[in-house]
Specification:
single chain; four-stranded parallel beta sheet; Rossmann fold; alpha/beta; six-stranded parallel beta sheet
């Protein structure tokens, strides 16, 4: 769900008619319009420029915002009529006023805005069958990780929305699944604990009845009372930015909080979260500066033995605007650098540069091997049942199983085929007999569906 476009819609005066088109759900077809607004991540930038070109060729005005346009406004300005950088709450109304007066500028710099200026998004435009509702309770991230563009876009200051306003917005959501999209859900300041408790207790007292996923740092595990109320409010899966399991790997990406806590703190934090029935989606990066073949497989082994339930295993990718991109570009280390065409490869599953020990091609070849060893069906089943044992939560286990299948399909897209050595969309090998383990666990999964999961899935689909 493109939450940012819902906010743009809410900022738009009522005499404008708005239609959202999301190519994840329907093929683009030209639609007559007075104004076309486009947002895009870096990997989608080329497609955004293609769509803009279609409308500009017909004399229709185009404007682009979002993370990619904010990081490379000079590039975006070559393909659209107006570029809006940063947060749009204060400049979008001005742009529309200028457009209606026939003198729009080519660039509007939104910068960072006070969070009390953020309106509730217009959710009526989200007409597609999105799985989750999205909400943002804060903006900004003080972490400053080398590979991340969030700090460049939203600033280092952690800006928190009023809890009651967040709860009011949550009451207007309709889907049973919720994704809290804050990049850093529980801040690491003194009052962060109190705010988190007010938010989670408020979700319980208002009887929102959501299952939710959020993004947090390792400090999420610091307080048992916070974990208790997070779980009671519906937290079922939490994404933790682990990135690396060694001190050197964390130094490579300037992951300061994890360095301060120490890599030996991970397992204790994982166990603490699991005790409250919450599963862990571990975000791990492969292809750091110090990585060779041995380091990549050790990272895989750490993931499988550490207590991580769902696996987000991405290739280090130098996004524009980050310290990593600027440094690697200066050293001429980025191999896929024919921009904007090569931006389409910047989706974290395609190596665009190598490491100090591996070429780009070697890194890609090893990652295909790593992904196959993590996301094959038998391993996904083992992760499922380990999650069930750790969390004693059937809903968490179901979410983990689905998340791992989705990540597997994304990372192994080119391996999904009917050829020998390939895998099916269910992550099973095309050739070879099914193992005894898979056959036995088929019966166990059928039991889980009958007892719990089928009813839950029907609720997710709005049928129960």
């Amino acid at each position: 769900m493109p939450l940012g476009l819902g906010i743009i819609a809410a900022l738009t005066p009522g005499h404008w008619e708005i239609q959202l088109i999301d190519e994840s759900f329907e093929e683009f077809a030209f639609t007559k319009a007075d104004l076309v607004g486009i947002t895009a991540f870096t990997a989608n930038a080329v497609r955004a420029y293609e769509i803009a070109a279609i409308y500009r060729s017909k004399g229709i005005y185009t404007v682009m915002g979002g993370i990619h346009a904010s990081m490379v406004p000079a590039e975006a300005a070559k393909y659209v009529d107006t570029v809006i950088t940063g947060e749009a709450e204060e400049v979008w109304p001005q742009f529309l006023s200028d457009l209606e007066a026939s003198h729009p500028l080519g660039l509007y710099e939104g910068g960072v805005v006070p969070v009390d200026r953020i309106p509730h998004p217009r959710r009526d435009i989200f007409r597609y069958p999105y799985v989750n509702d999205l909400i943002q309770t804060s903006r900004g991230c003080p972490m400053g990780c080398d590979f991340c563009s969030v700090t460049q876009m939203c600033g280092k200051k952690y800006r928190e929305r009023e809890v009651e306003d967040v709860l009011d917005e949550l009451e207007g959501t309709t889907r049973p699944l919720l994704f809290i999209v804050d990049d850093h859900l529980v801040n690491n300041t003194r009052h962060a604990r109190e705010r988190a408790l007010r938010l989670f207790k408020g979700m319980v007292s208002r009887k929102l009845n959501k299952l939710w996923l959020g993004q947090a740092s390792i400090n999420f595990a610091d307080d048992d009372e916070v974990l208790y109320w997070a779980a009671k409010s519906g937290c079922t899966l939490i994404l933790l930015g682990i990135e690396g399991e060694t001190t050197q790997a964390l130094k490579d990406v300037n992951k300061r909080l994890n360095l301060k806590r120490g890599v030996d703190s991970y397992r204790k934090a994982f166990r603490k979260i699991h005790r409250h029935g919450i599963a862990i989606l571990g975000a791990m990066i492969f292809g750091m500066e110090s990585d060779g073949r041995q380091e990549l497989f050790k990272r895989r082994d750490f993931i499988l033995k550490s207590g991580i339930d769902a696996i987000q295993a991405s290739i280090m990718t130098p996004l524009p605007g980050t310290g990593l991109f600027n440094r690697m570009a200066l050293l001429d280390r980025i191999r896929l650098n024919n921009f904007p065409d090569d931006w389409q490869h910047y989706h974290f599953m395609h190596a665009v540069m190598g490491t100090s020990k591996l070429s780009r091609d070697e890194l890609q070849e090893i990652m295909d091997e790593v992904w196959l060893s993590m996301y094959n069906k038998e391993n996904l089943r083992r992760l499922l049942f380990r999650t069930l044992i750790r969390t004693r939560n059937l809903k968490a286990a179901y979410w983990v199983y689905g998340a791992n299948h989705n990540y597997g399909r994304m990372t192994l897209q080119k391996k999904i085929n009917d050829q020998p050595g390939g895998i099916t969309r269910n992550m099973e090998w095309v050739s070879g007999k099914r193992t005894v383990y898979l056959k036995i666990t088929d019966y166990l999964l059928a039991l889980l569906y009958a007892v719990s999961w089928n009813k839950m899935v029907q609720k997710f689909k709005g049928r129960a």
